[in-house]
């Protein structure tokens, strides 16, 4: 397997956690997003969407972190990253998608660059945009997590799932952008529990070979 | 089952298609997004994220259209909305997520409202934003679809999957916003094939009881 990675990408961070939890290793190729290497013809031939991560395996190139992680979970089922019961799977997937659809894409690097370059928004306005969507998303996520009887040490019971895999990079980035997290005690508790695990630690942006 | 729906929501449109393809019916409750009913305490008690759709079933409330559709596919497997092989499942999921993560959330109503209300962007700027992200996403999706040997009448072979279920509402909305689609012949061909199916037609926004 070969992974296309960037230390600071939230989506690549998710995949790094999943690979490590599964005990899988992959050859790593780094795509420098701030140097816009994701838009170079070489990389668009790998992933036409121009995003990381991508995973080459079985003669195919897989894209979209959650699709890749579901693939890994189907082909390397131990430890499981989704529960068994369909209602519980939907719960875990809905938490993962709340981050992956409703918080992260609105705040990623290409959006912030577009706010600056096309709409002329200064740094304060861009930081305000970022904080607004983190607050909007975390308010909802906190209510979901605080109100469900399936939550344990992690988003579902006492072992990490794809929900925690999505939550931790989002919390990491919110901290990096100095977003206040006081109002989200359940999110903070779960993220702290997950970040105490070696697999989550090994995937942290600052520990990657391409970290700056 | 009970669905929380809004005729113009792309995500609700996806769920309507899936329910109809599966031959399932659900009691329908309409949440008027332009009147901000999604932010009323009554609805936040149903879905703390303040988004549609949501589905009540089995004593639980499911959120996030893709999590709900995967649940329906697991509990009502015929007709299947995902292929059997893990690599093919990843392909179909990656197309669905390319729409659901990288195009739709950046352009949905709450983002356009925030561009207007918090950043003072006029209608021309908001329409430019919309068109930019459709073009960016469809350029990548077209290259993915045009370059993969698994594409048939639909995104995977000759029967609809969750990829087509996500693609059609996005094409519908791009047309409504007058985005040029000339450069995406494969997307247009697949969307036309899907929209010829009764299940996709029955789910169209204009045919819903709450349509305006």
UniProtKB/TrEMBL annotation, chains A, B:
GO terms for cellular component: cytoplasm. Pfam families: GST_C_2, GST_N. PROSITE patterns: GST_CTER, GST_NTER. Keywords: Isomerase, Plasmid. CDD domains: GST_C_Zeta (cd03191), GST_N_Zeta (cd03042). Residues 1-80 form the GST N-terminal domain. Residues 85-212 form the GST C-terminal domain. One of its GO terms (molecular function) is maleylacetoacetate isomerase activity. It is an enzyme of class 5 (isomerase). Its EC number is 5.2.1.4. One of its GO terms (biological process) is L-phenylalanine catabolic process. Coiled coil: none annotated. Belongs to the GST superfamily. Zeta family. This is Maleylpyruvate isomerase. It comes from Azospirillum lipoferum (strain 4B). The gene is nagL.
């Amino acid at each position: 397997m070969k992974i296309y990675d960037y230390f600071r990408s939230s989506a690549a961070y998710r995949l790094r956690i999943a690979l490590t939890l599964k005990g899988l290793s992959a050859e790593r190729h780094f795509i420098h997003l701030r140097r816009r290497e994701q838009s170079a013809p070489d990389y668009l031939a790998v992933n036409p969407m121009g995003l990381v991560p991508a995973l080459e395996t079985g003669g195919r190139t897989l894209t979209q972190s959650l699709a890749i992680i579901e693939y890994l979970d189907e082909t390397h089922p131990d430890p499981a990253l989704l529960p068994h019961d369909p209602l519980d799977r939907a719960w875990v997937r809905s938490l993962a998608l709340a981050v992956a659809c409703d918080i992260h894409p609105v705040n990623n690097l290409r959006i912030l660059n577009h706010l600056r370059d096309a709409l002329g928004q200064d740094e304060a306005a861009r930081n305000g945009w970022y904080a607004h969507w983190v607050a909007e998303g975390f308010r909802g996520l906190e209510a979901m997590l605080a109100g469900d009887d399936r939550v344990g040490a992690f988003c579902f019971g006492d072992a990490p799932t794809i929900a925690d895999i999505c939550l931790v990079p989002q919390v990491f980035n919110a901290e990096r952008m100095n977003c206040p997290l006081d109002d989200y005690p359940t999110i903070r508790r779960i993220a702290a529990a997950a970040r105490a695990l070696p697999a989550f630690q090994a995937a942290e942006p600052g520990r990657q070979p391409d970290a700056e």
